[in-house]
Specification:
3-stranded antiparallel β-sheet, 26% helix, Rossmann fold, binds the ligand O=C1O[C@H](COP(=O)(O)O)[C@@H](O)[C@H](O)[C@H]1O, 258 residues, alpha/beta, globular
Length: 258
C-alpha cells in the first residue's frame, strides 16, 4: 500500500477545443508508448457523454497501436449495444468504427444479462479479472489510462452526488438502478478501480462546464463525485480543459507539452 498522499491534479488548459483535442491525442499516444514498452499492452477505460468526440485526434494517426489497446468502459448504460444511449454505441460511432481496432479488444457488457443487473456487473467484473488479476495479480486493476467526463452535477462515470456507491470499497464494478440521469440502469467502475489507475484524465470543454469545473477543482471539500477522483501514488490525475471551461478556475493550469 502507498504511504504517499495522492499527487495534486495537473491541469492543462487550451485556448481552443481543437488544440485541446490534438494535445489530448499526443498525451494518450505518449501514455500508450510507455505502457507498451513496459508491458506490451495498453489498458484503457473510456466514458460516454461528450468524451468520445474529444478523441478524434487519434483517428488516422499512425502512432496509435490499436492492436495493443485493451478497452473497457468506465461506465455503461444497461441498454442494447445498438441503442443510442449505449456508451459503446457512442464510442463506436465516434471512434471505433473509424479505426482498425480488433473488435475482441473492446469489452462490452453481456447483452444476454440486461435483465439482471447483479449478474451483468459481476460478469463485467470477471472480464476485468481476466485482463488484470491473472496478469498483474493486484487487489485492484491498474489501468494505464482512464478517460472520464464530468456532468453538470459533478458526476463522473455513473457515480452520482450523494449516492451510496460513492462509499463502495470492495467491488470493481457496481450497478445502479436509480441514476438521476437517464437511463436509470447502469454499471460503473468504482473508486477503488478508478483511484488505482496509473493515469486518470478528465476532459471538459465548453462554457457549460465552467461553474461545475470551478466547484470540483476549487472546492474539493464539497466532495462531489469528480472531486473524489484522486489516484493513489504513483498514479496521477490530469485535467484537459479548454478556455471556456477553465474561465472561472482559481487553481493554476498550463498547456500540455510533450
Ligand atoms: O451519463 C454519463 O455522463 C458522464 C458525463 O457526460 P458529459 O456529456 O457531461 O461529458 C459521462 O462521462 C458518462 O460516461 C456517461 O455515462
Amino acid at each position: 500500500m502507498s504511504h504517499h498522499p495522492p499527487n495534486p491534479p495537473i491541469i492543462h488548459s487550451f485556448a481552443t477545443t481543437e488544440v485541446m483535442v490534438s494535445s489530448l491525442a499526443s498525451f494518450i499516444i505518449k501514455a500508450q508508448k510507455d505502457s507498451i514498452d513496459k508491458k506490451g499492452r495498453f489498458t484503457v477505460a473510456l466514458s460516454g457523454g461528450s468524451l468520445p468526440k474529444q478523441l478524434s485526434g487519434l483517428i488516422g494517426n499512425p502512432a496509435v497501436k490499436w492492436d495493443k489497446w485493451q478497452v473497457f468502459y468506465a461506465d455503461e448504460r444497461v441498454v442494447p449495444l445498438t441503442d443510442p444511449d449505449s456508451n459503446h454505441f457512442l464510442c463506436s460511432n465516434e471512434l471505433f468504427n473509424k479505426v482498425p481496432i480488433p473488435k475482441e479488444n473492446i469489452r462490452t457488457i453481456d447483452i444476454a444479462l440486461l435483465d439482471d443487473l447483479e449478474e451483468l456487473s459481476d460478469a463485467y467484473e470477471k472480464e476485468l479479472i481476466k485482463e488484470f488479476a491473472q496478469k498483474d495479480s493486484a487487489r485492484f486493476p491498474v489501468f494505464d489510462l482512464i478517460l472520464l467526463g464530468m456532468g453538470p452535477d459533478g458526476h463522473t462515470a455513473s457515480l452520482f452526488p450523494g449516492h451510496e456507491l460513492l462509499a463502495e470499497e470492495d467491488r470493481w464494478v457496481a450497478y445502479i438502478e436509480d441514476s438521476p440521469k437517464p437511463p436509470s440502469k447502469r454499471i460503473t467502475l468504482t473508486y477503488p478501480v478508478i483511484n488505482h489507475a496509473a493515469r486518470v484524465v478528465f476532459v471538459a470543454a465548453g462554457a457549460a462546464k465552467a461553474d461545475i469545473l470551478c466547484t470540483v477543482l476549487d472546492h474539493p471539500e464539497q466532495g462531489l463525485p469528480a472531486s473524489r477522483v484522486k489516484p493513489a501514488h504513483p498514479g496521477q490525475l490530469f485535467w484537459f480543459v479548454d478556455q471556456p471551461a477553465a474561465a472561472k478556475l482559481q487553481v493554476s493550469s498550463d498547456e500540455f507539452k510533450l
